[in-house]
Design brief:
The strands form two sheets. Strands 2-3-1-4-5 form a five-stranded parallel sheet, sandwiched between helices. The protein has a four-stranded parallel sheet with strand order 7-8-6-9, covered by helices on one side. The longest helix is centred in the C-terminal third of the chain and has 23 residues, at 215-237. The chain has helices spanning 14-23, 34-46, 68-77, 91-101, 113-130, 142-153, 205-212, 215-237, 255-267, 283-288; strands spanning 2-8, 27-30, 52-56, 81-88, 133-136, 163-170, 181-184, 242-249, 273-278. With 289 residues, it is α/β, with parallel strands linked by helices. The protein folds into two domains: 2-153, Rossmann fold; 163-288, no CATH class. Helix 1 packs across helix 6, helix 4 crosses helix 5 and helix 8 (215-237) crosses helix 9 (255-267). 43% of the residues lie in helices and 19% in strands. The protein starts with a strand and ends with a helix. It contains ten helices and nine strands.
Length: 289
C-alpha cells in the first residue's frame, strides 16, 4: 500500500493537497487522531480495494503530534510505501492568508497569528526533518501546486525539495522583497528605443529576437545559468526549499522578461519545480491609461 502523510504549516495548503490527491485516486482522511491511524492502516491493508491512502495530520492533533514519528516508523516496518509530504510557506504569506480568510490559527487563541506560527514551526521541526517532500507554497498558485503533486504522486517523477521562481521586474518599480538572487540586465540593448518594439514585451518574438540577437546576451545567459545551477544544490544542502531568482531591467517589460524566460528554459531540465513570473510586464501600459 502506498501511504502519504500530508502535514506541514497551518495555512500552507494541506486541505488543497488532500483534495488533489483524492482526485488522483487516493483514499483521503483529514485530521484523524494519531492514536487511531495505525489501526486504520491495519484495516485498510486488509481491504484489497484500497491501494493508495493519504492522511492529513497537523498541529490540531495537539501534543500527540510528537507521536507521528512513531507512527511513520511503525508503518514503514510493516513494509508499506510511506512518504511524508510537508507543506511550507513563509510567515508573511501565512499571516496574510489568515487575515484574508478571517480564520484563527490553531495555536493563536488569545494571541497574535505570528506567535502561533512561531510556536507551530517549533513543534513541527522534527517532522519536517523526516519529510520526503517539502513544497513551499508561498508563491504557488493552486494549479501549480496540483502540478507538483501530480508529478510526485501520480507520475512518480523524481522530485527534489526545491521550487524555483524566475521573476522579471522593473527597477523603477522597486526590487522584489522576496528575491534571493537579483541580476541587472540594463546593460543589454534596450528594445524600448525601437518604435516597432516599444509596445511589445519580451514574450513577443520580435523583442525576444532583438534582445538575444547579440553575443553579449548569450554570454551573460550562459554565465548566469551556470552560476544558478551551481548554487541550487548548495542551497538544497542547507535546507532551503524556495529560491526566487529576480532579473531586472528598467521597466520590467522587455529585456528582463526575455532573459527570465531563457533562464527558466535552461533550468527546466534539473528536476526541480520551476515557474516564471513577470511582475511588472503590464505596468507601463496601465500607467498610460
Amino acid at each position: 500500500m502506498r501511504i502519504v502523510i500530508v502535514t506541514g504549516m497551518s495555512g500552507a495548503g494541506k486541505t488543497t493537497a488532500l483534495k488533489n490527491l483524492e482526485d488522483a485516486g487516493y483514499y483521503c482522511i483529514d485530521n484523524m487522531p494519531i492514536q487511531l491511524s495505525v489501526k486504520f492502516f491495519e484495516l485498510a491493508t486488509e481491504n484489497s480495494d484500497i491501494e493508495k491512502v493519504a492522511l492529513g495530520i497537523d498541529i490540531r492533533s495537539g501534543h500527540n503530534i510528537e507521536k507521528l514519528e512513531e507512527v511513520i516508523d511503525a508503518l514503514k516496518k510493516a513494509n508499506n510505501r510511506v512518504e511524508v509530504l510537508f507543506l511550507e510557506s513563509n510567515d508573511e504569506v501565512l499571516v496574510k492568508r489568515y487575515k484574508e480568510t478571517r480564520r484563527s490559527h490553531p495555536l493563536a487563541v488569545g494571541k497574535r497569528v505570528d506567535e502561533g506560527i512561531i510556536e507551530e514551526r517549533q513543534k513541527l521541526a522534527n517532522i519536517k526533518k523526516k519529510a520526503d517532500y517539502i513544497i513551499d507554497t508561498s508563491m504557488l498558485l493552486t494549479r501549480e501546486l496540483k502540478q507538483e503533486l501530480d508529478n510526485i504522486f501520480v507520475n512518480d517523477r523524481e522530485y527534489k525539495n526545491m521550487y524555483i521562481t524566475v521573476m522579471s521586474f522593473g527597477f523603477k518599480y522597486g526590487i522584489p522583497n522576496d528575491a534571493d538572487l537579483v541580476f541587472d540586465v540594463r546593460f543589454l540593448p534596450n528594445p524600448y528605443y525601437v518604435d516597432d518594439l516599444r509596445d511589445k514585451t519580451g514574450n513577443d518574438e520580435p523583442v525576444h529576437n532583438f534582445v538575444m540577437n547579440n553575443e553579449l546576451s548569450h554570454t551573460f545567459l550562459e554565465k548566469l545559468s551556470d552560476m544558478v545551477k551551481f548554487l541550487i544544490p548548495n542551497y538544497v544542502e542547507e535546507g532551503k526549499t524556495q529560491l526566487v531568482v529576480a532579473v531586472g531591467c528598467t521597466g520590467g517589460k522587455h529585456r528582463s522578461v526575455t532573459i527570465a524566460n531563457e533562464l527558466a528554459k535552461e533550468l527546466s531540465s534539473l528536476s526541480y519545480g520551476i515557474k516564471v513570473f513577470h511582475r511588472d510586464i503590464e505596468k507601463d501600459s496601465l500607467r498610460k491609461k
